[in-house]
Amino acid sequence: MTLQVPQIPMPQALGICSPSFEAAACTVSPGIVTAETVATFDRYPYDGIIFGPGGVCRTTGATTLVRLEPPTDADLGYCDRVYVKEIGSTKCTIFDQAKTGTGRVATIVVRGSTVNIMDDVERAIDDGINVVKSMVKDARFVPGAGATQRLPRLIGLTEALKLIPTGKTISGRAAMAIGLVDAIDDDPINAAKLIDQKILSELVPLSLTKAGADKTVNYDAARQIAIRRMRGQEAPLTAISLLEMAQTTTFDDGMQKERTAFLALRASSQARALRHIFFTERAAKKLPKAIATQKFNLKPLDHVVVIGGGTMGSGIAYAFLNASIRVTILESDDPGITRANTAIDKIISASLASGHIDPQAAADRRNRLTVMIIQPDPDKGKLGNDNLTNVKLVIEAVYENLAIKKEILQAIEPALDPNTIIATNTSYLDINKLAACLDNPSRFVGLHFFAPAHIMKLLEIVKGSETSPVALAMGYAVAKSLGKVPVVAGGCDGFIGNRILAALREAADAILIDGSTPAKIDEAMVAFGYAMGPYETQDLSGLDIAHATRRRLDASRDPSRRYIPIADYLVTQNRLGKKTGAGWYHYPNGKIAIDPKVEDIICREAKAANIKRRHFSSDEIQQRLLLAMVNEAANILNEGIAVSAADIDLVLVHGYGFPRWHGGLMHYADKLGAALVMAELNKLCNEDPLFWQPSPLIIDCAKTGRDFASYNNQSAKRPNA
């Protein structure tokens, strides 16, 4: 198990750091790990293959192996020291490497009598690390331990203001440039030992140092930036005030005020919401009992086949390439191969430009990729010229068309090993209908990635009626390999997230034609905490996508249900969003702008439907859209499509931009209370009884006093059970 150590800006009077800005361990018995010395590792506690994917390799620079036999000298890397540390009651072996400049990575080899015990230890370690990572990178907290008072005294108010309210992390060299550390050394501990005592004695304690007034600092501007970029969050504004206070208060007074602010924020609803999401994320990684108790052994993923190299397929492929997993993309023709290669190259170029990878890492990713034409040859177990009989996972990621997907699945199944798991990346389609075309539907599972697939953390694992535990376990293995948050969903149109999104859009369209505008609706949801509103989001994704879904559902739509045709009219005018220069908004010079033509279309459609338009306040817009989502989510929970309310929270936060500091949709609903939710839904029923009919689950919770959080387990009895 490989642990990524975060870069933590820790203000101190005198600091020396490694080039990667970490507290590197003292070097003990460094040397090249050889085939002869591998046996010496046996005296250390470990389980499994040391030199395996995600193991010691990342620390030592060794070659990743998937075989059990001892590695050769050529396979091995460098290790500064190996030592045993007790974590809880479990002894763990830790491999340190610091000399090559890649010492951010440490490897812990966990020993345990059972897989479950090792998983528990891994989760405990992961939890601890992620607490630190979340605190460092999450802007929704005020740093404690005097950070708001120490840091401005160390590096000045201007630089402190860049770090404290945002949680920004910086490299060792950047830290040295601003005075956060005094020196950089490959062996910072030894360098610290060599510091002259006279230098240390002359250092003035930060508690005796004045922060000093900085007339160049514009705190009001900083607050406006925080309000704009971190909408609705309390802590960044508090942090800015504490920094401002540092220039006029003594160190002791500042420390006391920081502590008071910290404790107040810790007890706030936002803090409770953030803790809820944090622990829900940790729990989501654990295999459900129904899977964990099964007797099967999934081998580590070393090769994945992705069918289709379009926007989703290329993103999925790159996610695996990022995880050091070899990928083969299958396309139908030469133009498809060109598109797939171009799409991957575009992602690699963007990653290079952003500094996420270096040229060598880019080349490594390119070398792990094969793109070829799909040519099923069942007799030889081949697809094209590549033998894929040993592939453990195939992911179909073509266009959202049931007939096309079924055709591809039927063609590829005979060419694969009987134990190969087959997955589909469908966003909406019926999993059971897709599985029915296979000879063995038990090995079929939905893996709904979210665009962009290599960035978005959510993975909906969609379970069909015949999906086996091993197929579900593969879904969890994919999530773990790619660092994603897994949520199991049952089969229905749109699963969890897109089904709730459909309800949001339906409610928004009703508000739109009844009296509002796309901009006002978007502004209301941004004020709630979303990065953007539903109409700007549609413009980015493309109006044609939702249009295709509506056409697919035409035959099954209840004719008595209200239908708003405005989006359909925009599509007929080729207003497909930002990609065509116009959608709900228009985009002169690539920048978003309100389009009066859209408002004219809305008013025209309202007049044709004999609707007398009225004003909707921002609060009313928020309330209606949130109630629509909560009601649909309750139906999803009631039907068993989602296992728990917490799962719905994860889907909305990680897949749809629901503000993390609200704790997710159902956590927010519990804050309102089921009785209030039902009362408000009943009021809206007077306008539209079909759409606003309260979910049976909401009725039950309001009647019994239960909250939605009580449905956070598989054994929870539904009202209709």
Task: Tell me what the structure shows.
By secondary structure, the protein is an alpha/beta fold. It folds into 4 domains: 2-137, no CATH class; 147-267, Alpha-Beta Complex (2-enoyl-CoA Hydratase, Chain A, domain 1); 298-494, NAD(P)-binding Rossmann-like Domain (Rossmann fold, 3-Layer(aba) Sandwich), CATH 3.40.50.720; 498-566 and 596-711, N-(1-d-carboxylethyl)-l-norvaline Dehydrogenase, domain 2. It contains 29 helices and 19 strands. The strands form 5 sheets. An 8-stranded mixed beta sheet has the order 11-10-9-15-16-17-18-19, sandwiched between helices. Helix 3 (147-155) crosses helix 4 (157-163) and helix 8 (219-229) packs antiparallel against helix 9. The protein is globular. Residues 1-14, 20-56, 100-105 and 715-721 have low confidence and may be disordered.
Task: List its traits.
721 residues, alpha/beta, 2-enoyl-CoA Hydratase, Chain A, domain 1, Rossmann fold, 4 domains, 8-stranded mixed beta sheet, 4-stranded antiparallel beta sheet, disordered C terminus
What secondary-structure arrangement, pairings included, does this model have?
Layout: E1 2-4, E2 16-17, E3 31-32, H1 57-60, E4 78-79, E5 81-87, E6 90-96, E7 105-110, H2 115-137, H3 147-155, H4 157-163, H5 172-178, E8 183-184, H6 188-193, H7 197-202, H8 219-229, H9 235-246, H10 251-266, H11 269-284, H12 289-292, E9 303-307, H13 311-322, E10 326-331, H14 334-354, H15 359-367, E11 369-373, E12 376-377, E13 382-383, E14 386-387, E15 393-396, H16 402-412, E16 421-424, H17 431-435, E17 444-449, E18 458-463, H18 469-482, E19 485-490, H19 497-514, H20 518-528, H21 534-541, H22 543-553, H23 566-572, H24 596-608, H25 618-638, H26 645-656, H27 665-672, H28 674-685, H29 696-704
Parallel strand pairs: 2-8, 9-10, 9-15, 10-11, 15-16, 16-17, 18-19
Antiparallel strand pairs: 1-7, 3-4, 5-6, 6-7, 12-13, 13-14, 17-18
Helix pairs in contact: 3-4, 3-9, 8-9, 9-10, 11-26, 13-14, 14-15, 19-25, 20-25, 28-29
